[in-house]
């Protein structure tokens, strides 16, 4: 855990240059616009701690699998989000010395991620080895208005001299992935041009053949006036640049404006890429930097208007939730159904592929409440389109007759992970994909989705579970052997409670879905039955499994057991672990972690969270009280679920603690891994921890329920949710809760199980004394 | 399974060229002399299916570990036996065409591994693409008399032409390992010379700095007369050769004799290597090929005299056991305490390092009975020397206070395997290392070994187990979680019966050993206690564990359970598996194997075999009858244990079936993997299956016991064992058993629990009617 960043409600601020944490800062200060994004690498050369990262959404490379010992069933390739052309680079030479902060004395350093307006700003005074002092202010953004554009304002002011400054703005496509299995480079050059004042480079990914064209133009101003300059084009393998030498006067600012356009063959025919790129740059030049920046601020203002969560009285909490929302909005806009939400967004390479179960389990609730219904639906359809691949994937593992196993990691539906304990065994992911369908329908009421696509997906998933369990003669129950649950600190366990539970639930829900389709649209049901060769006996088999599934539990303790034999472990609590031992995944050998009782991520609790209405509060409390003290939260996906359950249980201390942990995970580098990138998908979990946790929001029988619960430190908190045409702003303060309906659609809802109707564009104020806690 | 090789009691014979199986043949026809060895690659160029392989004992390379996802505790390097300079190569050009069997019509092809005399012979007629027909006879051997020498007699007879033949004998050090994690080459050139008639090349391994000098000389004869020839030296990077052009007459034989010497810095100072190499070649030239070959035959005759097993009436069985004994003798001579027995000997690269638990569990009994006592002792001392590394290794996994975990795979004591489920969890290896000490002392009576080294090793091992178990509050027993047993088709299981049992046994035996040392030599005990900081409370802790260990069992079935929950698996028998599904490890995905009930290798049965005297016969029978039908024997180490137990239980059918399976594993390619190399260490298990299986040999209370059991197909079988100064030839025929004492030391022993005394150089004949079966 590191707390070197300043607390500020609207910005992330680094005061003073924390060289040793620069890779963390590069992750945290990342920018993106859904289409492309980047780590907060410096524009100028930097030889200190850094990990270069520029990424283009949907552009991936299937890197040949690397393992120590091949196991049958492994995928041939691991699809990776690719490090792409670096468009931010500006080499700066001051009186002949290459400017590199690693070799400078640095003063007055400030780095700011301005979340309100959506830009990154860096300013500092640097003294070079040749004694020259310069003040630098570098500002840039990835436009969310014109999502193929980025812009940089890079200013240098000589402080103790007048002399020459050479700027070399460049586009560098000669990059490699840090995460490359065989140290190969993944891009080939297609074409490039470098002229005075502009340059373009088009690269193509090997194997997948994605083409990305990146272009740049620039201008220079001094004393606020655009100046003419000599510009010497440079081109070499996968690299284009321009050299500009200007004379700068002591105390006077020289500004380089650099515009970049990034367009890919996902959105343009390859032959049109250059033209599209130039068109983008024409627009950028026409508008100019300041206008682009103003438009950016305005667009972000709208985003905040839609999705902000306001917490009064607790700046750290406020900053954190905004950081989470900001990063989510930077990563995925929901406009392109081919895209999904990578676990690190545009902030790092780790974890490769873009799609994990995180999307279904954590992100969909966020988009359901804060975006148009089609965003969540696009995410569901993404999986429906990949159903054939999921069936293929299951086939590779020996399943048949239409059984579908969705991949653990994917870009295109093919499995591309290669640890057997995860690839083959972390099959609960299939359950989350089914759950997301349920969640979507529960929230939107759009039950027709079952007919459109949902029932087919559910049938494939149910078939998988029906084949994956086996009948234990010994127990006279169905068991599920050799799985890894959400808690990845157990591998190859038997009867993971969560997996058994969600599998059984899937079988029930799939049966419901098929019956629903049959009841509503018998012709479509007949078509589906014929398409997937469905047999009624399958429903009987599913029902038999549902009735006879084994669920490990300990009756004495009154808790469900994470898996068979969990109580054989030495029961130590996290609080008794030496601080030096954590995070366990960096300090302990793997076998030690596996045989310990320590939990990476809520597992039984994840199940209780998903299926909360099926358990009484005391059962949830007993399980929470048992598992929480054993959980180390070394998965980013863990604390949010704990925060929500703690809030439900009225455990303010823990709810607040877990809220801080989930929301400030990256800001405070809780797990000592933010340098690899931010934990983007878990940020949606942070949003849930406020809305479902402190707000107590649930959907039951097609209606919203709230049970607000305000931490002692907060004066108020408010969030917005859209629900079936209504748009609600829910604000809880110390004296009660107000619900403002900002739409034209009246809505009736429940607060602490009492029904209220909130008229169109009206507000209901519920005083604290009127609130009846159900707890 | 493939049966393309001929049955012959003294030779392995391939009639007709089986191109498609050439890599299998290269493994099976391998040669070695304990110091170096090689696959049966052709001398001339061959572009068909081949895997080049020349290996020098003790010369290894620590290849940087490759894994898909790094886990804490993994070793940095995987030490590999290295493919070394190819010294057999002779390029042959016939009237200008490069001779390559892949592009020839081949007739009258015979390949023979003559085990009686220790050479490899190949003869055939080949028609080249240019129409020239030649008869080739190639013979070679690795001298066991001068163990730095190899020799080749390569003869070519033109059948349908007279013309030029160009021979290019060469030494090629520009080879790479097939098993290289990052496609690196592992050798650097140190020096080379090529003169007319001779050439030398010295290479050095990267990182480890082993130097190996290889030299060659050669002569040519026609019509039995040595001829003069022009010889053109060739040298290029890591390659030296000579070109020789001779004119050959139709029907007349031209013979190239090539002598090679292979010397390494393990046995010579680097500066002396070239001189040592030349000295070897001087000797070879002085003796000449025929003398070397005669000496080889004589030396092998002696080896056979010492270690042959004769089976009359069953040529396949006879051939097979000789093949196993032959390969064992080729691999390890026991003379060099720095060496150990690689699982593939000199026949392939797979499995890397040289030392596995195979040595202790399978090989030591063979050497105890067939070699000088010092051979087995050297193998024990090898581990004692590596105790510090074993303590280090345990330390990396979080163990402390002198706990020792021996590596799964090693060259120098460091762990170098990198699958977590094996590296970290297949810890039963520690038990086998303790068991070997017990086995050695039981056989030799040399209890002083405990004081010399054994007790210290046992204490380290016991400390590991004492820390590795944990107290289960739930069971009120000690449990051992997260292990992989000998059956590697289960990973990360809890309470593997075998591991729990041997762990507990180790604790008892270590306590015994320490008490023994204390009783015999209190001063040495005090020194040991001080050296390892031993505390008496440790003995108490060990005793508590021994008394309270959990052993999974099913009382209803009356069997021990391989691990907790084994009976939850779907219980299918191997006989009901479709043939197309086998071997499972090539046909099923890994997860499917893991959750099936199928067993790779005896696991409970391995324990019953080791500790047979602690169980009654009916218990062994029930477990055998339960587990045998579930075992697929996809580990080479499996069938021998089954053969021994089946023989003990009087189950002739299965004893014979498993004997064939273990003994003909490579000859018949049972597991479809002989192309990677032979299963050398399991060959000692084959020896056990005859001596301990059919011979029923056991040691109890310092005396030999026999319980011979002859399969119906055999007329007789006989084997030799040395025991505490006596040398016995035990021959069982249909009418009884004779025991000949070929030593000057009288011995009393038991046959079917009846005591006999066999005088010095005497024989006892026990008629069948006098045999009382204890079964």
Automatic annotation (TrEMBL), chains A, B:
Residues 13-265 form the Glycoside hydrolase family 65 N-terminal domain. The keyword Hydrolase applies. The active site is at residue 488. Residues 322-688 form the Glycoside hydrolase family 65 central catalytic domain. It comes from the Bacteria. Keywords: Hydrolase. InterPro entries: 6-hairpin_glycosidase_sf, 6hp_glycosidase-like_sf, Gal_mutarotase_sf_dom, GH65_N, Glyco_hydro_65_C, Glyco_hydro_65_M, Glyco_hydro_65_N, Malt_Pase/Glycosyl_Hdrlase. Belongs to the glycosyl hydrolase 65 family. This is Family 65 glycosyl hydrolase. It comes from Solitalea longa.
């Amino acid at each position: 855990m590191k707390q070197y960043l300043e607390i500020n409600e609207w910005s992330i601020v680094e005061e003073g240059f924390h060289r040793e944490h620069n890779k963390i800062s590069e992750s945290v200060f990342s920018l993106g616009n859904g289409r492309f994004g980047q780590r907060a690498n410096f524009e100028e050369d930097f030889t200190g701690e850094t990990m270069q990262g520029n990424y283009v959404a949907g552009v991936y490379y299937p890197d040949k699998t690397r393992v120590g010992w091949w196991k049958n069933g492994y995928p041939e390739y691991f699809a990776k989000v690719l490090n792409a052309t670096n468009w931010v680079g500006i080499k700066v030479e001051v009186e002949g010395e290459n400017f590199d902060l690693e070799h400078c004395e640095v003063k007055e350093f400030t780095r700011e991620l301005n979340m309100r307006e959506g830009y990154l700003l860096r300013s500092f005074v640097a003294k070079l080895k040749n004694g020259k002092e310069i003040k630098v202010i570098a500002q840039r953004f990835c436009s969310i208005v014109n999502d193929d554009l980025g812009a940089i304002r890079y200013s240098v002011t000589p402080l103790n001299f007048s002399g020459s400054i050479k700027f070399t703005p460049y586009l560098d496509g000669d990059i490699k992935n840090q995460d490359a299995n065989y140290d190969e480079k993944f891009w080939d050059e297609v074409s490039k041009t470098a002229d005075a004042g502009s340059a373009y480079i088009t690269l193509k990914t090997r194997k997948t053949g994605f083409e990305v064209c990146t272009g740049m133009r620039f201008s220079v101003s001094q004393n606020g006036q655009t100046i003419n300059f000599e510009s010497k084009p440079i081109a070499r393998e996968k690299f284009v640049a321009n050299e500009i030498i200007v004379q700068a006067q002591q105390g006077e600012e020289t500004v380089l404006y650099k515009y970049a356009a990034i367009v890919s063959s996902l959105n343009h025919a390859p032959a049109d890429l250059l033209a599209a790129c130039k068109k983008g740059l024409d627009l950028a030049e026409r508008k100019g930097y300041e206008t682009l920046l103003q438009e950016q601020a305005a667009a972000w203002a709208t985003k905040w208007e839609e999705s902000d969560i306001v917490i009064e009285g607790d700046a750290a909490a406020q900053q954190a939730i905004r950081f989470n929302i900001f990063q989510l909005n930077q990563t995925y806009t929901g406009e392109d159904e081919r895209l999904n939400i990578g676990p690190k967004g545009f902030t790092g390479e780790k974890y490769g592929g873009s799609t994990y179960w995180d999307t279904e389990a954590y992100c969909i609730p966020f988009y359901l409440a804060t975006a148009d219904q089609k965003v969540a639906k696009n995410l569901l359809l993404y999986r429906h389109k990949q159903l054939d691949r999921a069936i293929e994937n299951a086939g590779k593992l020996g399943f048949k007759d239409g059984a579908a196993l969705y991949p653990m990691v994917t870009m295109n539906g093919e499995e591309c992970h290669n640890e057997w304990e995860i690839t083959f065994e972390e099959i609960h992911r299939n359950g989350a994909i089914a759950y997301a369908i349920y969640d979507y329908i529960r929230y939107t009421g759009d039950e027709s989705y079952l007919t459109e696509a949902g029932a087919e997906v559910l049938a494939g998933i149910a078939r998988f579970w029906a084949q994956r369990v086996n009948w234990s003669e010994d127990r006279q129950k169905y068991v599920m052997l050799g799985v890894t649950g959400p808690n990845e600190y157990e591998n190859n366990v038997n009867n993971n409670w969560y997996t058994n539970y969600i599998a059984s639930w899937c079988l029930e829900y799939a049966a419901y879905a098929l019956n629903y389709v049959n009841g509503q649209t018998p012709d479509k049901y007949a078509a589906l039955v014929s398409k997937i060769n469905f047999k009624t006996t399958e429903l009987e088999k599913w029902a038999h499994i549902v009735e006879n599934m084994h669920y490990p539990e300990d009756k004495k303790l009154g808790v469900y057991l994470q898996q068979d034999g969990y109580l054989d472990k030495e029961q130590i609590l996290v609080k008794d672990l030496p601080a030096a031992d954590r995070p366990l995944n960096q300090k302990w050998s793997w076998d030690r972690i596996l045989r310990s009782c320590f939990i990476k991520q809520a597992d039984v609790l994840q199940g209780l969270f998903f299926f909360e209405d099926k358990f009484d509060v005391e059962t949830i409390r007993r399980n929470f009280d048992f598992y929480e003290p054993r959980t180390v939260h070394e998965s980013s996906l863990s604390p949010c679920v704990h925060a929500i359950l703690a809030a439900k249980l009225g455990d303010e201390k823990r709810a607040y603690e877990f809220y801080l942990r989930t929301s400030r995970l990256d800001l405070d580098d809780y797990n000592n891994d933010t340098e690899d990138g931010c934990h983007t998908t878990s940020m949606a979990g942070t949003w849930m921890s406020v809305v479902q946790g402190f707000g107590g929001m649930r959907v039951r029988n097609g209606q919203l329920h709230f049970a607000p619960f305000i931490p002692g430190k907060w004066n108020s908190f408010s969030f917005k949710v859209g629900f079936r045409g209504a748009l609600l702003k829910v604000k809880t303060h110390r004296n009660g809760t107000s619900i403002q309906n900002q739409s034209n659609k009246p809505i009736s809802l429940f607060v602490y199980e009492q029904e209220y109707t909130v008229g169109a564009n009206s507000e209901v104020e519920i005083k604290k004394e009127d609130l009846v806690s159900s707890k």
